[in-house]
Structures are given as C-alpha cells and as structure tokens.
Amino acid sequence: LGGGQGKYMFSENFVDRDISPAYFEKEIKSGKKHIHAIAPGMYCINHTCSMRIGIDLSECTDCDWSIIESVAYAKAARSESINILETLKLRNELSADIAAFHTVRIRAAEKIMADMNQNFEQYQSPAEE
C-alpha cells in the first residue's frame, strides 16, 4: 500500500489486522471511518478532503489520510504529462508555468510508483534541463 495512511496500515502496527474490503465495510457502516475514491486504486479517509475531480497527486502522495493500492492512475497521469511536455517542447510552445505544473505531476506520480516498488526511469523534464 502507498500513501500516508496506506504506509501506516502496512506497517508493523497492522501486521495481524484485517484490512480487507470487509474491514472497511464494517468501519464505514459503524461510522468509525469515512472513505471516498480520489482516483482508481486511490482512496482518502479524511472527512474534510476536497479532492474529488481535480486530483493533484502531489497533495496525495504523502497525505496522512490517503490509501493507494494501485499505481494505474499515477502511471496514466505521468504518461499524459510527459506527452504534453514533449509535444509542447517540439512545437516550441512550452511555457514555464505549464512545464512546472506537469513536472510536479510527474514527480508525484514517480513518488507513488517508487513507494509501490514499480520500476521506471525518472523523466528528465524540459523545465529541469
């Protein structure tokens, strides 16, 4: 598991505890926990979290409330940002603000991928060249 809460749950404190869907169903029905999806395979248990449609991976990577069980969304977001940067660079239309936004998005996705032990080659952003 990744994310702040996911890492905590995977730690020694939860070795003998059941963190299956049945566990969360029981916790939610009892009112002890709240959970909402922020992306496929990414969840948040913070009642006050406003992440719904406009997901900023950089805010979720080490959030104490996030639980990440799949890197699929992070990989897709990373690929999309790389494609945008490379296309704009080829067209000579890359601005500093767009480069910065997508570089942060790529680094956050790579952090999630690293936390989940995924192999990847770190992207060298035009903003960092």
Strand content: 5-15%
Whole-number mean pLDDT = 83
Order of helix and strand elements from N to C terminus: HHEEHEHH
- Distance separating the two termini: 33 Å
The Cα radius of gyration reads 17 Å
Low-pLDDT stretches: none
What about the largest sheet?
Answer: 3 strands, antiparallel
Question: Which shape, going by the Cα principal axes?
Answer: elongated
Structural class: mainly alpha
Beta strands, count: 3
Number of domains: 2
Annotate the secondary structure layout:
Layout lengths: L3 H7 L10 H9 L6 E4 L2 E3 L12 H4 L5 E3 L3 H19 L5 H20 L14
Antiparallel strand pairs: 1-2, 2-3
Helix pairs in contact: 4-5
Protein name: Site-specific integrase
Descriptive terms for the model:
129 residues; mainly alpha; 2 domains; three-stranded antiparallel β-sheet; 5 helices; 3 strands; elongated
Can you describe this structure?
With 129 residues, this protein is mainly alpha-helical. Helix content is 46%, strand content 8%. It has a 3-stranded antiparallel beta sheet. Helix 4 packs antiparallel against helix 5. The longest helix has 20 residues, at 96-115. The chain is elongated, with a radius of gyration of 17 Å. The two termini are 33 Å apart.
